[in-house]
Amino acid sequence: MQVCATLPDNFIAFEYPKANLPWWYDIVDGLPDQIVKDSYVDVWDRPGLGVTFRVNAAKKYLEAEDKAFFE
Q1: pLDDT digit string (tens) for 12-71?
Q2: Where does the chain show beta strands of DSSP type E?
Q3: Alpha-carbon distance 42 to 67, whole Å?
Q4: pTM for the full predicted model
Q5: In 3D, which of 60, 69, 58 has the Cα closest to residue 28?
Q6: Are the CB atoms for 28 and 51 separated by under 8 Å?
Q7: Within a domain: residue 11?
Q8: CA count, 13 A, side-chain hemisphere, 41
């Protein structure tokens, strides 16, 4: 979103596919509750991707064969 926000108007069409994953907001802090509003998105002003990944919360959603992924 940050890159698209720096481009001239109508230079690029931005698509944001939205999956309804029930656990997504459990594993990421910093996302607004509704990302796309009336076909617009707010551009975050936080560094990096603007979110914090919650590793401990994500671990409980890993499949058995992936349990060591974050180690």
Answers
A1: 566 666 667 888 889 998 887 777 788 777 887 887 778 889 999 999 999 999 999 999
A2: 28-29, 36-37, 40-41, 52-53
A3: 34
A4: 0.62
A5: 58
A6: yes
A7: no
A8: 18
Range of the domain at 44: 2-6+16-66
- How many domains, the chain? 1
Q: How far apart are CA 64 and CA 34, in angstroms?
A: 31
Strand, coil or helix: 40: strand
The CA-based angle 16-21-25, given to 5 degrees, is 85
| Cα 59 versus chain centre, distance | 17
